[in-house]
Specification:
Shape: globular
Strand order of the largest sheet: 2-3-4-1-5
Distance between the termini: 50 Å
Largest sheet: 5 strands, parallel
Order of helices and strands: HEHEHHHEHEHEHHHHHHHHHEE
Radius of gyration: 22 Å
Number of strands: 7
Strand content: 5-15%
Structural class: alpha/beta
Helix content: 40-55%
Length: 329
C-alpha cells in the first residue's frame, strides 16, 4: 500500500450530542439497509450528516463514514481512506492497495482491474453488512475518474454492501437504472426540514423555550424548517423570559448575527468574486426576475447564475409557476 498522509478525523462520524433527536431517524436507518444507495441532497445547514449519523447509530451494522474534500478528488487518496476505514470496521478485509497504485490508476484497464479486486475483497466483509457513507460528495464529483469508479462500485457491489452519498448538489452519477430497479432512496431538503411540531419540541426540550402557536407559525414561515437557522436562533434566545420572546419572535425582528456569520463562513467565502458581487447587489430583492437582475447587476449571465445557485442549494429557489427565483426568506 502506498504511503500517504492519513487524517483519522476524516473517518469519524458526526458527534451525536443529543441536541437534535428526530423520530424519522429510525425509518431512514431501515431505508439505508433496504436500498443499495441512499442519497441525501440539500443546501448547507439542513442537518444532512447529523441525520445520517443518528440513523446509523440506531443500527447494528458496521459503517464507514468518510468526509470528503478536494483532496479525495485524487482517486488514490480516496481509495486509501476507504480501505483504511473498512479495515478498521472489519479486520477480515485483507485487500491491500499496491505500491504502484498511482501508475495503475492512470490506465483505464488497470484501474478497472484494481476496482474489481477491491470488490472481491469486499465480498468477505459485506456478508456481515457494511454501510459506506461519503459525506460532502459535491466536493469531488466533478472528477470523471472518481465518478466512473463509484459507478463501477455501485453497479457490482456485493449484496451486503450499502452506500450513502451526502451532497449539497445533485449526484452526478447514472442512477436511472437503480431508480427503476428500486435500489435507490433519495432524500432531499423536504425530508430534512423541521416540521412545526419538531420546531416546537426542539425549542421546548432542548432550550426550555415553550412557544406559543403564533410564534411557531412565524418561525415556520420565516425559517421554513432550516435546521441550522433554528439552532442558532435558539442559542441566542436561551434564558430569555416569555415576554422577551414575544418581541424577538415577531415579524419586525431581525435575524441573529450568528446566522449571518454562518452564511458568510459556509456559503459566501467559497464563492467566486462574480457570484459574491451578484449576491450583494440582489440580496434585498423579494423576487429575482432574470431581466431585472441583469439590469441591476450589469451581468449578462444572471440566468445562469440563478440556475447555478439554485442547483447548488445555496438558498435560492425557483418560484412555482414563474421564471423568477427568490432567496430563502
Amino acid at each position: 500500500m502506498p504511503s500517504l498522509p492519513i487524517l483519522r478525523t476524516k473517518l469519524l462520524p458526526p458527534l451525536n450530542d443529543g441536541l437534535i433527536s428526530r423520530a424519522k431517524c429510525g425509518q431512514i436507518g431501515q431505508d439505508i439497509l433496504k436500498y443499495r444507495l441512499t442519497t441525501v441532497t440539500a443546501g448547507p445547514g439542513y442537518g444532512k450528516s447529523s441525520l445520517i449519523g443518528q440513523a446509523l447509530s440506531l443500527l447494528d451494522v458496521n459503517s464507514v463514514f468518510l468526509r470528503l474534500n478536494e483532496t479525495e478528488r485524487d482517486l488514490a487518496v480516496f481509495l486509501s481512506y476507504l480501505c483504511i476505514g473498512i479495515r478498521e470496521q472489519n479486520s477480515a478485509f485483507d485487500f491491500q492497495l499496491p505500491e504502484n497504485l498511482f501508475d495503475l490508476l492512470s490506465d483505464v484497464t488497470s484501474r478497472t482491474e484494481l476496482l474489481n479486486n477491491l470488490l472481491h475483497g469486499l465480498e468477505v466483509v459485506s456478508a456481515a453488512g457494511l454501510v459506506i457513507v461519503l459525506d460532502d460528495f459535491h466536493t469531488v464529483q466533478d472528477n470523471a475518474e472518481f465518478r466512473d469508479a463509484l459507478s463501477l462500485l455501485l453497479r457490482d457491489a456485493p449484496p451486503g454492501l450499502r452506500f450513502v452519498f451526502i451532497s449539497r448538489t445533485p449526484i452526478l452519477l447514472p442512477l436511472a437504472r437503480m431508480r427503476v430497479a428500486r435500489q435507490l432512496k433519495e432524500l432531499d431538503q423536504s425530508d430534512l426540514i423541521f416540521s412545526p411540531t419538531e420546531t416546537c419540541e426542539f425549542f421546548a426540550n432542548q432550550f426550555s423555550l415553550p412557544l406559543e402557536n403564533e410564534q411557531i407559525e412565524w418561525l415556520s414561515l420565516t425559517y421554513q424548517g432550516w435546521v441550522a437557522g433554528l439552532i442558532l436562533l435558539a442559542q441566542t434566545l436561551e434564558g430569555q423570559k416569555a415576554e422577551e420572546l414575544k418581541n424577538v419572535l415577531a415579524p419586525a425582528s431581525s435575524f441573529p448575527r450568528s446566522i449571518y456569520e454562518y452564511f458568510h463562513e459556509q456559503v459566501y467565502q467559497s464563492l467566486a468574486a462574480a457570484l459574491e458581487d451578484f449576491l450583494l447587489k440582489t440580496a434585498l430583492l423579494n423576487s429575482l426576475d432574470v431581466d431585472f437582475c441583469t439590469e441591476l447587476t450589469v451581468c449578462r449571465d444572471s440566468k445562469k447564475i440563478l440556475q447555478s445557485l439554485c442547483k447548488q442549494g445555496l438558498f435560492v429557489e425557483k418560484q412555482f409557476g414563474t421564471d423568477s427565483y427568490r432567496y430563502h426568506p
